[in-house]
Design a protein that fits this description.
The complex is a heterodimer of chains A (270) and B (280). In chain A, a hairpin with a 2-residue loop joins strand 9 and strand 10. Chain A contains 10 helices and 10 strands. With 270 residues, chain A is of the alpha/beta class. Chain B folds into 2 domains: 49 residues, no CATH class; 196 residues, MetI-like (MetI-like fold, Orthogonal Bundle), CATH 1.10.3720. In chain B, 79% of the residues lie in helices and 0% in strands. The two termini of chain B are 50 Å apart. The chains are: A alpha/beta (270), B mainly alpha (280).
Chain lengths: 270, 280
């Protein structure tokens, strides 16, 4: 389904963000990408839809190598890859509905998008998605009138509106409170399961990742250092990824659902 | 607390009667002599420069007499005897202002988009920046003199002058606004597979539109004032009529025109302030 082989990225400034990362995502599989700031998580998912141009390596999605696409083909591939962002990246002065419909931009002509004359199917799909994320009554509000959790729901609806075959999710909960974070993670996991959608989720909140995701990939300084189920993420592995720290609490409590991320973090810092 | 006591104690042992301040603002100049040299040079230049201005007191007193006559004219403004000319000049000025603002705003949009580094291709960027820099480097009166020479006397030259400077003004500010637009939205819209124009319409436009509307009404009011100025060099409008009245020492008619200009400027300023508050 998605296969990343030997992916490297060196920025113009000279720093190596990714070096030789291999990663295979099976159909319907959701993986959490963890690692400290600057480990290359963000660069990795942006290489997949080429918001960042990879320096070396191959990215194969459904048999198509994404690293050698013409601009036209790149747009066609991007519309099949939904993306959800850390600070939502909604267009704040547009309405909720316009933001959700903007997921269809890759499919409609410029004139239609300019005049907001989206095909009936697209509008029906957008309405269904707003209903799914529970924002139907807010559809004509401007995006900047919503709370953080509601905005991220709009972000999710926009990405799903693309009828994607892959989701790239960049720190979906980083600007949300713990309770909303869990609700958003649960929503993401549910919609992925409903659609059999594979997803890569960058997340720095390890307990939250352990609580929801069944496969964890650890990045450190641009290299993959761990790939396995949450049960394999012991204190030694966490120390290898993040550096030495008292990890008791984070790794051990992960399996029990009712320990929230706050409790786990408190345990780690105690 | 220990630090404070320590410093105070140290000051006591060095024999300073008062407690030395714990902190003073770092000096602007490294050494005192640099400061005094700077102050001395500045004062010296000021004295020399004042002395070099040649004031002809006889002409000043003549001017005062004329100023008095002018003020008298103001007290009894004459709207009648040059009424026709004033009306024509005013119409020209207002037409010039409206057409030049509309044309300038419409043309400033492509120039603004082209001059924004974050969305424009490099060659387009340099062309648009170049045009904007050129139109901004000349004051309206200079452009008007040039265009009057090209197209002859009359409001067409004035219209072109104001259009060109509106493009420079709005194009520059619009480009800067676009460059400051939230890059995350632009990235998000690009990630949906949107084309360049769709990115502009969905991610950039909503972010810059309110300010563009505000700046456009502000420019309308600048254009009306400038339309009075460019008239003096022959580019049509109320400025030309005003200039003629002054040349003929018809201060009462000139005063009438000034009063009308002031009233219109006040009206546009008030309404543009109102519109800008509404859109932002």
């Amino acid at each position: 389904m998605l296969e990343i082989v030997g992916l490297s990225k060196r920025y113009a400034r000279g720093d190596l963000a990714l070096s030789g990362v291999d990663l295979k995502v099976q159909p319907g599989e959701v993986i959490a990408l963890i690692g400290p700031s600057g480990a290359g998580k963000s660069t990795l998912i942006r290489c997949v839809n080429r918001l960042v141009e990879p320096t070396a390596g191959r990215i194969v999605l459904d048999g198509q190598d994404l690293t050698r696409l013409s601009n036209q083909d790149l747009r066609r591939v991007r519309r099949k890859i939904g993306m959800i962002f850390q600070e939502f990246a909604l267009v704040e002065r547009l309405t909720v509905m316009e933001n959700v419909l903007s997921g269809r931009l890759g499919y409609v002509s410029f004139l239609r998008s300019l005049l907001r004359r989206f095909p009936t199917d697209d509008v029906a799909r957008a309405l269904a998605l707003l209903d799914r994320v529970g924002l139907t009554e807010h559809m004509d509000k401007r995006a900047d009138q919503l709370s953080g959790g509601q905005r991220q729901r709009v972000g999710i609806a926009r990405a799903l509106g693309q009828t994607p075959s892959l989701l790239l999710i960049d720190e979906p909960t980083a600007s949300l409170d713990p309770k909303t974070s869990r609700q958003i993670m649960r929503l993401i996991m549910e919609v992925c399961a409903e659609r059999g959608l594979p997803a890569i989720i960058n997340i720095h909140d390890v307990p939250l990742a352990l609580a929801f995701v069944s496969r964890i990939v650890g990045l450190k300084q641009g290299e993959k250092v761990f790939d396995g189920p949450p049960s394999g993420l012991g204190p030694e592995v966490l120390s290898e990824i993040y550096g030495d720290e008292d990890w008791s609490g984070v790794a051990a409590d992960a399996e029990s659902e009712d320990i929230g991320p706050l409790a786990a973090v408190a345990g780690a810092s105690a | 607390m220990p630090l404070v006591q320590g410093r105070a104690a140290a000051a006591g042992t060095t024999g300073v009667s008062q407690v030395a301040p714990l902190w003073v603002k770092p000096a602007l100049f490294r050494a005192p002599w640099q400061k005094w040299l700077f102050i001395g040079l500045a004062l010296g230049y000021l004295v020399w420069a004042t002395g070099s201005v040649d004031v002809n007191w006889a002409r000043v007193s003549e001017g005062l007499v004329r100023a008095a006559r002018f003020l008298q004219g103001f007290l009894a403004p004459d709207f009648r005897s040059r009424g026709e000319d004033i009306w024509i000049g005013l119409q020209e000025s207002i037409t010039m202002t409206i057409t030049a603002t509309v044309a300038g705003v419409l043309l400033s949009v492509p120039f603004g988009l082209g001059a924004a580094r974050n969305i424009a291709p490099v060659p387009v960027y340099f062309f648009c920046r170049g045009f904007i820099a050129l139109s901004r480097s000349f004051q309206e009166v200079l452009i008007a003199i040039f265009l009057v020479a090209l197209f002859g006397f009359g409001p067409f030259a004035g219209f072109l002058t104001l259009t060109v400077s509106t493009i420079g003004f709005l194009g520059k500010l619009l480009a800067e606004d676009i460059e400051e637009a939230d890059p995350r939205c632009i990235e998000a819209i690009r990630a949906t597979g949107a084309g360049w124009w769709q990115v502009v319409v969905y991610a950039v436009w909503p972010q810059v539109l309110p300010r563009l509307v505000g700046l456009s009404v502000y420019r309308f009011d600048i254009n009306f004032r400038e339309s009075a100025v460019v008239g003096i060099v022959g580019a049509g409008g109320i400025g030309g009529t005003l200039n003629t009245a002054m040349d003929r020492y018809e201060y009462d008619s000139a005063a009438a025109m000034l009063i009308i200009i002031i009233l219109i400027v006040l009206a546009t300023e008030y309404s543009s302030g109102y519109i800008r508050r509404r859109v932002q």
